[in-house]
UniProtKB/TrEMBL annotation:
GO terms for cellular component: phosphopantothenoylcysteine decarboxylase complex. It comes from the Bacteria. In the N-terminal section; belongs to the HFCD (homo-oligomeric flavin containing Cys decarboxylase) superfamily. Binds 1 FMN per subunit. The keyword Magnesium applies. One of its GO terms (biological process) is coenzyme A biosynthetic process. Residues 11-179 form the Flavoprotein domain. CTP binds at D284, K294, F331, K348, K352. The gene is coaBC. This is Coenzyme A biosynthesis bifunctional protein CoaBC.
Amino acid sequence: MPTSKAPSRAKNIVLGVGGGIAAYKACELLRLFTESGHHVRVVPTEAALRFVGAPTWEALSGQPVATEVWNDVHEVPHVRIGKNADLVVIAPATANLLAKAAHGLADDLLTNTLLTARCPVLYSPAMHTEMWQHPATVDNVATLRSRGAVVLDPAVGRLTGADTGPGRLPDPAEIFAAAIRLLDRPGEPDLAGKRVLISAGGTREPIDPVRFIGNRSSGKQGYAIARAAIARGAEVTLVAANVALPVPAGAKVTRVETTAQLRDEVVAHAASADIIVMAAAPADFRPANYAEAKIKKVAGEAAPTLELTENPDIAAELGAAKRPGQILVTFAAETAEAGTALEYAAAKLARKKADLSVLNAVGDGRGFAVDDNTVTLITPAGVLATLPAMSKDRVADAVLDAAVGVAPVGDPADPDCSRPA
């Protein structure tokens, strides 16, 4: 779960609450903001107060709550609240609220606030699947995103009644993480309108129904890149291999187990992606033969011999099929000394026709399953940057910064086909 730190400066956050059953989850989101030291003004719709009353919001925020522009008119709240905000978060954002925001309607305090805010705005929709997938909602979301707002895709799960599907409000901790990233990077989302495909985690190659060949990758770095890309306005598809982490709010997640499954899912989504980040650790080899029953240890008999065969090189396949302008980012996890590791990573970069390689040192408590990472960013022109040890969240933004700024290999706009932009 994302953790909060005391902010360098307390920010003014407006938490808009729409009239949906998920309004009760916004109480937890409010608690995360206030416990992080931020000032939060809750602005619910009139319908939201049917689910959670004003006294609850006032007690949790320490701020007055109003729904109409007629309260405290002398303070001009319908203008002042939005203008003073560093961030506006709408959770849950109902279909009705998204429609009003997209069309500039302002018939209550919250919709007026949205028109006057000049800070980042984050919408976290929650509604029934049919409402989320209706062409009107799809168009409204596209309109808001085109204006620079960050609209998270809802989670998939149990909805009101017996129905299940996309439309569930993401976990409040993940909405909080997305919001904090927006506070850390104010300004227009530089990945708005971009599609980013990310792989994360480590594959498992079954030996028998009980055992498998795997690796130590936890998926933390890939998930951090997904959260960063979402906060920067991208539409993110995440292919997760055996990852036991909360789903980043707004990501479309497909879960896989083996390298072959990872390859199939990544290839299926690659053609429509603007940026592909291969942060997963796929197994290079798999057992040549799968035992249908558990392999038993028999006293007096020698241990069985495990024959391995090569797995497909997913990144190389993606590099060979890249379309003009598409960016491919690969990871190179190495245990070798720095100089040798750089040679390995540079060779992999060329072999896979990637545009950016992220070399990270692993082993001895480094890289895998920890919160920090030490990476070197490499382009076909050479080393772009060697970063000191830092959080994987910060590494994520550094990787995306480099991906946005690099010239794609073979791009006709780059006659050298190698230099960083």
